[in-house]
Amino acid sequence: MSDLLAIVGPMESEEELLEEIAYARPDRVTVLVETTDSDWGSDESEPARAVRDRIARLLAKIERRTGAIVVGTAGNREQLRGWRFDRVVGARAALAA
After folding, report:
1. Are 41 and 54 in contact (CB under 8 A)?
2. What are the phi and psi torsion angles at 89 (to 5°)?
3. 36: which of 13, 28, 48, 76 is 20 to 30 A away, CA to CA?
4. pLDDT in tens, 27-57
5. CA pair distance 42, 79, nearest whole angstrom
C-alpha cells in the first residue's frame, strides 16, 4: 500500500501533476491545496468557488487516471502533522519531504 501527498499550488500545471502522480503508482492520494486564500473551503466568493471547482475536477482526474483512492484534501500542512507519505509530488514537494 503506498500513500502519496500531492501538493497543488495556485499555478500548478494539472497535467504535469497528474503525470507525477501516475508515475508514482499510489494506492491512496491525499491532496494538499496551497493557496493564498485560507478560507477557500468555506468562502462563497467567486475565487474560492473557482478553487473548489478546480480541486473537484482534479480529484476526479486523479482517481480516473491512476485508479488510486483520493482519501481527502488538506488546506495547510498543519492539518497533516503526524501523517506519513511514501512520496510527495507537486508544488514545493522538496520542502514537504
Report:
1. no
2. -135, 155
3. 28
4. 999 999 876 666 666 677 887 788 788 889 9
5. 16
Q: Which three cell numbers stand for residue 22?
A: 501516475
Contact 30, 7 (CB under 8 A): no
Rg from Cα positions in the chain: 13
8: left (phi over 0), alpha (psi -120 to 50) or beta: beta
CA pair distance 75, 13, nearest whole angstrom? 18
Domains identified in the chain and CATH numbers = 3-96 (3.40.50)
Segment 3-25 shows an average pLDDT of: 87
- Percent of the chain at pLDDT above 90? 46
β-strand partners of 32: 7, 74
Amino acid occupying residue 24: A
Q: How confident is the model at residue 96 (pLDDT cuts 50, 70, 90)?
A: very low
Q: Which position has the grid cell 482519501?
A: 71
